[in-house]
């Protein structure tokens, strides 16, 4: 997989506020990889990205790909918002906060795929997938196959 430079991340995600701590997260998204910082010393996962482990104060935190398994912690259906390619507020745009299987309390915000709005439930097991938005991959979660 070819390396994506910081400038390319900024060019491809012009609406994101990029900094030294979160650029690896967004670089991962462009490669269809969900990268969460993990402490190399104690194993703690940390999201949003932070340069130091909040448990052991190690600065050896590494962007690490997660399994993509999790459960819906909360969700909402947006009926209005800023114009975004591929987002239809008129029919409702689902936004879910998913607690990742890697560690209690580690959550990411994304949209959904392959599920009707009225089927969404807190606690629903979900799996990471990717949808296209304006030509770029965006993380989404769909019901887990075993559910
Ligand atoms: Zn640590």
Helix content: 10-25%
Instruction: List the secondary-structure elements in sequence, H or E.
Output: HHEEEEEEEE
The computed structural class is mainly beta
The tally of domains stands at 2
> What small molecules does this complex bind?
zinc ion
Protein name: OB-fold protein
InterPro entries: ChsH2_C (IPR002878), ChsH2_Znr (IPR022002), NA-bd_OB-fold (IPR012340), Thioester_dehydratase-like (IPR052513)
Domain ChsH2 rubredoxin-like zinc ribbon: 28-61
Domain ChsH2 C-terminal OB-fold: 65-131
Present the secondary structure layout:
Layout: H1 6-12, H2 23-30, E1 35-39, E2 45-46, E3 61-65, E4 69-78, E5 93-100, E6 107-112, E7 125-133, E8 136-143
Parallel strand pairs: 6-8
Antiparallel strand pairs: 1-2, 1-3, 4-5, 4-7, 5-6, 7-8
Residues 39, 41-42, 44, 53, 55-56, 58 line the site of zinc ion (ZN).
Features:
147 residues; mainly beta; 5-stranded mixed barrel; 3-stranded antiparallel β-sheet; 2 helices; 36% strand; binds zinc ion
What do these coordinates show?
The protein has 147 residues and is mostly beta strands. The protein folds into 2 domains: 6-65, no CATH class; 69-143. It is 10% helix and 36% strand. The chain is built from 2 helices and 8 strands; from the N terminus they run H-H-E-E-E-E-E-E-E-E. It has helices spanning 6-12, 23-30, and strands at residues 35-39, 45-46, 61-65, 69-78, 93-100, 107-112, 125-133, 136-143. The strands form 2 sheets. Strands 4-5-6-8-7 form a 5-stranded mixed barrel. Strands 2-1-3 form a 3-stranded antiparallel β-sheet. A hairpin with a 2-residue loop joins strand 7 (125-133) and strand 8. The longest helix is centred in the N-terminal third of the chain and has 8 residues, at 23-30. The mean pLDDT is 94. The protein binds zinc ion. Zinc ion binds next to loops. Zinc ion (ZN) is lined by residues 39, 41-42, 44, 53, 55-56, 58.
């Amino acid at each position: 997989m070819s390396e994506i430079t910081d400038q390319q991340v900024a060019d491809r995600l012009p609406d994101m506020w990029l900094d030294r701590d979160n650029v690896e997260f967004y670089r991962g998204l462009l490669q269809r990889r969900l990268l969460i910082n993990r402490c190399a010393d104690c194993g703690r996962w940390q999201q949003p990205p932070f340069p130091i482990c909040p448990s052991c104060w190690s600065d050896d935190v590494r962007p690490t790909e997660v399994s993509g398994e999790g459960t819906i912690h909360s969700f909402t259906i947006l009926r209005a918002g800023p114009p975004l390619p591929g987002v239809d507020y008129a029919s409702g745009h689902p936004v879910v906060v998913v607690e990742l299987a890697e560690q209690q309390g580690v959550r990411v915000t994304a949209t959904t795929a392959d599920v009707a709005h009225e089927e969404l439930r807190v606690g629903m097991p979900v799996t990471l997938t990717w949808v296209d938005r304006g030509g770029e991959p965006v993380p989404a979660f769909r019901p887990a196959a075993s559910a």
